[in-house]
């Protein structure tokens, strides 16, 4: 049996028909799931997603365990952002299943999309944070307010505690003393570091990044990659979509190569970068040229 491209034992490539999204009903399952002990934080099983006739994710399965750093690479249009958006519920799934902490968050059964109970979804949403390409800071709020808003509003942290944590995170991001600045007063690299501090302020179990440096000039890219590398040393679980190949190689426990909506290769950086997978070689050749 040919399983071309699959290198490691996680992630994987399977083929499927990838039917376009049909009209689906959304319902909520009743009752709380207890969750499953163990190290797997995120489990994506046989995820499919299409926009009209365009099948963007075709049977994607991926597991992320506690402390793991997984980089997702691949050409523009290969489905990386859609995968992150589905995993963080910013986009509905077509079919398949997504679990967090062993809890089925969203799944498809007989054409019906089911979400976990409201209570479980709250718990699940609180276990991840997302850092976007374009920072998405609130322009009319200062750095401190940007960082403390969600912890106070969503996690119900008290103001003093949230502020103390925010100042600590700013220090960690090399932005000590900038808490009163407004986003328009910051460079792109500083904005992105504030966005990372804001994501960390939610105490996430998993941090997702979607091309965190692609809106930045090279020197600003370096400062953002440096803080992400520091987070890696703290063994924060991260899923990072990136075009920075050397960074991905240096930082990742596992690299997932997406091609045309499937995981075409996955494994350790050494395995993936030395892979004979033709699409992977072609993709990498574009970087060394
Ligand atoms: N909201 C959307 N509506 C329609 N098509 C979309 C939408 N989002 C993404 N796509 C399409 O899905 C494909 C994969 O896009 P994306 O996930 O952004 O890829 P990547 O992040 O790898 O560049 C592209 O063909 C893109 O045009
Ligand atoms: Mg993208």
List keywords for this structure.
binds adenosine-5'-diphosphate; binds magnesium ion; 12 strands; disordered N terminus; 289 residues; globular
Any overview of this molecule?
This protein has 289 residues and is an alpha/beta fold. Helices cover 32% and strands 26% of the residues. The chain has 9 helices and 12 strands. It has a 6-stranded mixed β-sheet. It has a 6-stranded mixed β-sheet with strand order 8-9-10-4-11-12, with helices on both faces. Strand 6 (103-109) and strand 7 form a beta hairpin. Helix 3 packs parallel to helix 5 and helix 5 runs parallel beside helix 6.
In short:
The protein is α/β, with parallel strands linked by helices.
Q: Spans of 5+ residues with little confidence (pLDDT < 50)?
A: 1-38
Distance between the amino and carboxyl termini: 35 Å
- Overall shape: it is globular
Which ligands occur here? adenosine-5'-diphosphate, magnesium ion
- Please trace the helix and strand order, writing H or E for each element: EEEEHEEEHEHHHEHEHEEHH
Count of DSSP H/I helices: 9
Q: Helicity, in percent?
A: 25-40%
């Amino acid at each position: 049996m040919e399983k071309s491209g699959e290198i490691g034992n996680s992630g994987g490539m399977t083929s499927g028909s990838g039917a376009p999204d049909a009209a689906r009903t959304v319902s909520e399952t009743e009752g709380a799931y207890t969750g499953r002990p163990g190290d797997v934080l995120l489990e994506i099983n046989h995820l499919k997603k299409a926009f009209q006739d365009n099948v963007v994710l075709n049977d994607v399965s991926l597991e992320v365990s506690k402390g793991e750093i997984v980089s997702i690479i691949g050409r523009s249009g290969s489905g990386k952002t859609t995968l992150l958006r589905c995993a963080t519920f910013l986009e509905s799934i077509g079919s398949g299943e997504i679990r967090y902490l062993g809890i089925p968050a969203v799944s498809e059964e007989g054409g019906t999309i089911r979400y976990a109970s409201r209570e479980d979804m709250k718990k699940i949403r609180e276990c991840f944070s997302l850092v976007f390409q374009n920072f998405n800071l609130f322009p009319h709020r200062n750095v401190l307010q940007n960082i403390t808003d969600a912890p106070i509003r969503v996690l119900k942290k008290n103001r003093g505690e949230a502020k103390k944590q925010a100042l600590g995170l700013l220090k960690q991001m090399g932005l000590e003393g900038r808490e009163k600045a407004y986003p328009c007063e910051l460079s792109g690299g500083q904005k992105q570091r504030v966005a990372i501090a804001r994501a960390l302020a939610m105490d996430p179990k998993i941090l997702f990044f979607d091309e965190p440096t692609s809106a930045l000039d090279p020197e600003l890219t370096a400062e953002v990659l440096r803080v992400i590398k520091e987070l890696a040393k703290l063994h924060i679980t991260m899923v990072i979509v990136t075009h920075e190949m050397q960074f991905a190689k240096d930082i990742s426990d596992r690299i997932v190569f997406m091609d045309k909506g499937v995981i075409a290769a996955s494994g350790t950086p050494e395995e993936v970068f030395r892979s004979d997978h033709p699409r992977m070689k072609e993709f990498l050749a574009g970087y060394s040229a």
